[in-house]
Amino acid sequence: MIERLHLVFASRRRLLVGIVLLLLAGGWLAFSRLPFTTDVAALLPDRGNRAVADFHLLAKAPLARRVVLRLRADSGVGQSELFKAAEELAAGLNPPLFTRVVSGPAAGGESALLSFAVSQWANLLNDSDYDFIRASLAPDRIEKALRSAYLKLLQPTGFLQKEMILADPLEFRNLVFPRLASLNPIGRARVVDGHFLSEDGRETMLLLETPIEITDFKGSQRLLAELDRVVKDVVPPGIKVMPLSGHLYTVANATAIQRDMVVVVSASLVSLVLIFMLFMRRRRALLVFLLPVAILGPALALTGLIEGSISAITIGFGAVLLGVTIDYGLHLYFSLQNCEKRPGLIVAALAAPLSGAGLTTIGAFAAQLFSTLPGQRQLALFAIFGVFLALILSLLVLPHFLRGEEESTEISPSLLKKRELRYRGRSAWVIVMVWALFLGLAAWQAVKVQCVGDLREVNLVSPSLRAAENDLKSVWGEVRGRALIFAQGRNLEEALQANDQLYSVLRREFALSEIVSLAPVLPSFQSQRNNRWGWQDFWTPERLSELRRKISDSSRKLGFSESAFAPFTKALISEPPFLTESFWRQAGFSPLLDASIEKDSESVTILTLVPDQPPLEAVFTACEQIPGVRLVSPQAFSRVVSAAIAKDLRQFIVLALIFVALILLALLRNLYQVLLALLPVAAGLLSMFGIMGALGLSFNLFNLVAAILIIGLGVDYGIFMVYRLFRGSDAATERAVLVSGLTTLAGFGVLILARHPALNSIGLTVLLGVGGALPTVLWVLPALAGLKRDEIR
Amino acid sequence: MKIFRSLFKRGGLIFLLLSLIFGSIAVAAEVSGRRVEAEKKEIVNSLEPTLKRIREAASGVETITSTMVQEKYLKAFAEVLKAHGRFAFERPDCWRWELLEPVISGLSVCGDKGRRWHEKGGQPQSFTLADEPWLRHFATQVTAWTTADFGYLKKQYAIVLLKSEPPSLELTPREAAARSLIASLEITFSVDYRYVTSIIIREVDGDYTAISFLDVNINQPLPEDSFR
C-alpha cells in the first residue's frame, strides 16, 4: 500500500506539497491561538495526594514572596547609623516596584504595649500561669518585689518606668511580655526602636513587598536594578546591603540559561555541521532536520484541542522530545540514496521498522498518560500526536524529496560479509562479555540513585546565593524553611478558636520560642472569656484583701505612700476590654498581622509557623483532629513529590516496557528478536542509572522527561537493527543508527555543557542513555546475532 | 431727690476712683507687658548665642567627675526620695552614674555596652543598650546634655532659654511618645558654660526629679576601671 501511495503522489508532488503546507500552516495557526499557562504546579502530582494544594499554601509563607534585605554594619558603624540607613533605604523604595517596606513593628505603640502588659491579665492568663501568681503572693516575694520597685524608681531611668512599676509591682508582666516574641516571624530578631535587629546587634532587616512575580524574569531584573540604584544612592559606606528573594534565583537561573544556550547552541551547531559534512553532504538532507520543527505547531494544537490550554513546560520539553523524529528521516534518507532500487520499494521495506519505531515510541509515551504529574500527561499526549504526525510525513511525504540521484550508496556484498565476520566467534564473545560486565556494574550502582522531588534542587544556586542563604540562617535563624499550619474558620473568631486549639497541641511538642503564632497575644473571644472566669475565680475577696494588706505592710517600710499601688490592686478586679485585632493594628503590628491573617469573602485563615523537624510527625496526627487546621511542611512536601516521581518512574518503566514489548511482539512475532530490540533500551537506562549512582547524582523530574527519550530512541535503534540483522533490511541502517545517535548527542547530549542543573540533567541523561544504547546497537546486537548464527550452524 | 443726688455724687466719686485705679493698673500692665515681651525677645535672641557659647565651652571638656544629689518628688512616696552619689564622664560616650546612699547602685555605659550593679546584686551585670530600651534612651540623653549636642537635642526638644547667667534651658519634648512621659527638662549650666550643674526632670503627672552636680572636676584623669 505504501508503495502504491508513493507512486500516486510521485506524479503529484505539487499537490502533495500544497496539502501538507496547508495542513501544517493550519496547525501552526491553531497553535498560535491557544491559551498558555505557566503554572509550575503542572510539575506536581495531582492524584492521590495534596501536593498541588500544599504547594500553593507554601507560597503563603511570610517571606516566600517578599524580598529580604539585610543591612549589616561594619565594626565602626553604630546602631543608630544602621537604623538611619535602613529608614532612608525604606523611604527610597517606592511603588510601583515596592508596595510596602517593613522594618519591624511600627514604633509608637509603646502605650498600647504597656496596656497589653499590665491590664490584659484577665483576658490572657490561664491555669498554667496561676502557679507563678500564687508564688508571687508570698510575703517574702512581695517584699522583694517592692524593694526592686523602690530601687528601680530610685534609678535615673525610674521616671521612664514609673507607670509600669506602680501598675504592676509584682511583675505579672513577665507572664505577658514573652508572648510578644511569638509574633516575630524572624527567628533570632529583636525589635529595637521599631527595627528588627540581629542578636549581634550589627544587622537589621527590611522586608519588601512587591507586585513582581517571582517567575517574572524581566520584572525581577527591573526590581533588582532599582534596588541596586537606591542602595547606591542612599546607603553610606560601612553598611553592606544583602538582598535575598526568589527574584534573585529567577534572574540567576534565566541569565545562566541564556549563557548556557549560547554555549550549547554553538556546540550543537558545530557538531551538527560536522555530522552533516561527514555523513550527508546533500542539501535535501536538511529536510530531515525540518521534520520536528514542522510538526511542533500542529502537535501542540491537537494537544491544546483536547486539554483546553498548553503549558509552557509542554512547549519547552515537547520541542526537545520531538527531536526523536529526526531518526525516521535519517533512515529514509540513507536508504533512499540507493539509486539501484525503486524508491517505492525502499519506502515499503522501511514502512515496517519505521512504523514499529513510531508505534513503540508512542507506546512509551502512552505509559506516561498514567503519570500523576499533569505536566507529564500533557507532554505524553503532545508527544503521541507529534510522533504520529512525524510518522505519516516520513512515510508519505519525505521520501519524495530525499531520493538520491547522483550515485548509489549500496554497500558491496563482500564488504557486508567482512562486517559480519567481525561479529562472529571469539570477538563476538568478547564484545558480549565486556558489555555484560559493564551492565552488571551499572546495575550494581543503579540502586544508589535517589529520586529528588524538590524543584529547588534543579534551580541554579550560585555560590554567592548559597552563602547568602546560609548567612541569613546563621544570623537570623531559620527564616525561610519552616512548616506552615493554617487554622481556618468562617470568620475571625472561628479561625482564632481553631488557632487556640492548635496552639495547645503545639505547646506540647515545641518550645515557646519555636512557635510563631497569634494565639498567645490574640486568643479567641471564647478563650478570653474562659480566662476571665478563671481570673475572677482566682481573685476571691479574701485573697485580694490579704494581698492589699501585704503590699501595704511592705510598701510602708520603703516609704511608699498608702495609695502608691492602688492602680495595681484595682486592675486585678476590673474587667479589661477584650483584646482585638484592631488593638494590635493600632499598636503598630499591622505588618505582622497581615503576614498571619488572610481574609476572603468566605473564610479567615490564620498562619502559624513551627520548625520543620521531627516533632512535626506527631503534630500531623493531632492537627488532623482539629477542624479547620491544615499543616504544610516543606520537607514533607518534598518527600511527597519525590515519592510521586519515584512511583511515576517505576510505573512508567514497567508500563512502557510492557507496551513496547507488546508492540514489538505484534511487529516481529519472535521473542528473541523482541528481546534484542529491547536491549538498547535496557542498556541505555542501566548506563544512565549506573553512572548516575556511581557519581552520587540524584534523579529528578528533568531526568525523567529525558528518560522517555532514551526509551523511544533505544527501541527505535533496536528495531532498525533487528530488521537489518534478521530481516534483510537495508545495509544503510547501521549508518542511519550511528548518525541518528550522533545527532541526538549533538542536539541534546551537548546540554551536559550547560551550567543550569535542569538543562544539565537532560544533557546528562541523554548522553549516558544514548552512550549506552548506541554501542549496544552497533556492536552488541550484531555480536549476539553472530553468536546466534554460529549456534544455528 | 437729695438722696439720689448724694448717691450720684458718691457714685461718681466711686466711678472716678475706680477708673483711676483700673486705668493705672492697665497702664502699668501695658508697660510691664511690653517689658516682658522685650525681655522675652531678648532671651529668644540670645538663645542661639548662648547655645553656641555652651557648645564651644563644652567642646573643651574631655572628662568630668562630680558628686551628685538626686531628689525625687514622687506622689508614690510619702516623702522626698533623696539619694547621693557620683557621676563621671569621658568623651565621646562613656559615663558612670552611681548612687551611694541610701543604696549602692550604679550604671556605667561606654558606647553600646554597659554594666550595672546593686548592693545585693553580687557581680556587676553586663548588658548592651540594644536590649535595654529605657537605658538606651537615657544614655543618649546623658551624652547629649554632657557634650552639649544641641543638634540632637533640638530635634528632640523645643528649647527655651530661661536664664542667661548662669545659662538655664527648658527643653520640651517634640514627640508625642516622649511628651506622654516628660513634661519638660530644666538644665542649668555652670557660670563658665562648660558643664551641667543641675537637671530637673518634670513628669506629666506633676512628679519631678532634681539632680545637682557638685564638686565638679573637669579634665582630670579618671581611674582606668571607671567604665569597665
Fold and architecture overview:
The complex is a heterodimer of chains A (793) and B (228). Chain A is of the alpha+beta class and 793 residues long. Chain A is built from 32 helices and 12 strands. Among the domains of chain A are: 1-46 and 282-410, Up-down Bundle (Multidrug efflux transporter AcrB transmembrane fold); 67-106 and 193-244, Alpha-Beta Plaits (2-Layer Sandwich), CATH 3.30.70; 267-280 and 411-447 and 670-793, Multidrug efflux transporter AcrB transmembrane fold (Up-down Bundle). In chain A, the strands form 3 sheets. In chain A, strands 2, 3, 4, 5, 6 and 7 form a 6-stranded antiparallel beta sheet that branches. A 4-stranded antiparallel beta sheet of chain A has the order 10-11-9-12. In chain A, a hairpin with a 5-residue loop joins strand 5 and strand 6 (203-209). Chain A is elongated and about 125 Å long. The two termini of chain A are 37 Å apart. Chain B starts with a helix and ends in a 10-residue tail after the last strand. The longest helix of chain B has 58 residues, at 2-59. Chain B has helices at 2-59, 133-146, 150-156, 176-179; strands at residues 63-73, 81-90, 94-101, 105-110, 113-118, 125-128, 157-163, 168-173, 182-189, 196-203, 208-218. The chains are: A alpha+beta (793), B alpha+beta (228). Chains A and B meet through helix 8 and helix 9 of A and helix 2 of B.
Q: Most extensive interface: pair and counts? A: A-B, 27 and 40 residues
| Secondary structure category of chain A | alpha+beta
CATH topology of the domain at 1-46 and 282-410 in chain A: Multidrug efflux transporter AcrB transmembrane fold
Report the mean per-residue pLDDT of chain A as an integer: 84
Give helix % range of chain A. 55-70%
The major beta sheet of chain A can be summarized as: 6 strands, antiparallel
Low-confidence stretches of chain A: none
Helix content of chain B: 25-40%
